[in-house]
Amino acid sequence: MTLIDVAIIGGGASGTTTAFHLANTNKKVCILEKNTHTSQRICGGGMSAAVQNWFPFKLLPIVDEIITNVEFSWNNTDKVVTKLPGSSPFWIVKREKLDSFLLDQALNSGCNLLTTFNVVNIKKSSNIWQITALDGRQIEAKAVVIADGSQSPWPKIFKLGPKKQKFACTFSGRIKRKGNLRSETARFEFGLVRNGFAWAFPLNNEVNIGMGTFLDNKNSIPVEEILKSFLPDLGFDPSEVIGQETKLRVWNGHSNLNGDGILLVGDAASLCDPFLAEGLRPALMSGFEAAKCLIYWLDGKVNSLDEYTKVMKNNWGNSMAWGKRISQVFYRFPKVGYQLGVKRPTAPERIAKILSGEMSYEDIAKRVIKRLLFQNSDS
Ligand SMILES: Cc1cc2nc3c(=O)[nH]c(=O)nc-3n(C[C@H](O)[C@H](O)[C@H](O)COP(=O)(O)OP(=O)(O)OC[C@H]3O[C@@H](n4cnc5c(N)ncnc54)[C@H](O)[C@@H]3O)c2cc1C
Q1: pLDDT single digits (tens) 279-327
Q2: Which of 265, 287, 325, 353 could form a disulfide with 358 if both were Cys (CB 3.0 to 4.6 A apart)?
Q3: CATH of segment(s) 166-250
Q4: Pocket test residue of 96, 100, 144, 267 for ligand 1, highest count of atoms within 8 A of CB
Q5: At a CB cut-off of 8 Å and minimum separation 6, what does 281 contact?
């Protein structure tokens, strides 16, 4: 069996990003993916244009819609429509299109792919990782990247990631027409979903409809009831949506994201934003940073994987620590949050800046604290 440099478990957004950057520097990489890779993915597909920073090729050709306005509502009433600031564009992509585009880039750079490779065992022996699939196939690698998403069992097995995993309950589906959703507009509805929100994102000739609830590890979400209230307001009948419920692992405290020769990325690393369910940006960011550290490690700099945990803490975790606090207060008192937070004239700009990475939740929290202390209504 030939020994490769890095085996990547999972060919989603985080795995393909890691694979591209490693393959692009001539490392021997293989993505092990349990599916055949063309299946529709459960995701809203909302993504900050700031992710472009992590790629040398243009992502714009696979963007379905560029969002210029956001519309907020409370129980379909009390609506606010605001223009996003020009500096913070927000993109909507079809997830399967994004993932297969990133996969193609990785394959074109020399990465290998094994599909229907359902990883059931990962073990380390004499500094070599042995990864086994359900059908008995085996791969040996110097390092392993865990990129198999929210249901990944490996963080617990290797004692990585947060001690206590936290999950949001979500639903996402598509409708094959536009309804009356304004063009270039993303809709966020805060009153209909307990401890969470619903959304409608425009795609090319379709709309993505979804919802998430963020406070407790609940088992399900009353999807049909919420769709019945939400969809008529968008000009749809609830029977039109085809979708699926799933559990999304969200950020729940600073944690170790690496061991010796092993790294967690994306949802497997519990990186998803616990307030807005933004998981694509951290998936791509972690893929980029993981590859950077692995390149040094493979070249003999033995402590460089610890740097990965540090960078992700500084560049993502510190903001998420405040995102978690904001989520706990906002979703416990959502009506007050909507009136005092979302409906503020500056709110859309702030949200856009958070999603683009120009501002962190920490910046927002500090502004609010300052406002409360000094009663300065301009912040
Ligand atoms: C309903 C919903 C809506 C969302 N909307 C948004 C949004 O609008 N914007 C945003 O930024 N984020 C959103 N997210 C979050 C975002 O989808 C995730 O954060 C993102 O998919 C993480 O990518 P990933 O590559 O880490 O994991 P995934 O995309 O889950 O990829 C994991 C891959 O691993 C494979 N795999 C799993 N198990 C194995 C195994 N045993 N062996 C081999 N392969 C395996 C899977 O088949 C899959 O290809 C949403 C999530 C949900 C659930």
Answers
A1: 999 999 999 999 999 999 999 998 899 999 999 999 999 999 999 998 9
A2: 353
A3: 3.30.9.10
A4: 267
A5: 47, 48, 50, 51, 355, 357
Distance 369 CA to ligand 1 centre (A): 34
Interatomic CA distance for residues 213 and 229, integer angstroms? 16
CA distances from 21 to 13, 158, 289, 299, 307 (A): 13, 25, 9, 15, 17
Where does ligand 1 bind, in terms of residues with CB under 6 Å? 9-15, 32-35, 42-47, 117-119, 147-149, 170, 172, 210, 246, 248, 266-268, 272, 277-281, 283
pLDDT at 290: 98
Distance 171 CA to ligand 1 centre (A): 13
Q: Is the pLDDT reported for residue 210 higher than 50? A: yes
Query: What is the residue type of 276?
Result: L
| Closest atom of ligand 1 relative to the 10 alpha carbon | 34
The per-residue pLDDT of the chain, averaged, comes to 92
Instruction: Assess if CATH 3.50.50.60 describes domain 3-63+92-163+253-324.
Output: yes
Distance 311 CA to ligand 1 centre (A): 22
Indicate the domain borders of the chain.
3-63+92-163+253-324, 166-250, 334-374
Distance CA(5)–CA(141), nearest Å, equals 5
Predicted local distance difference test score (pLDDT) of residue 379 = 41
Q: Reply yes or no on whether the pLDDT at 63 is more than 90.
A: yes
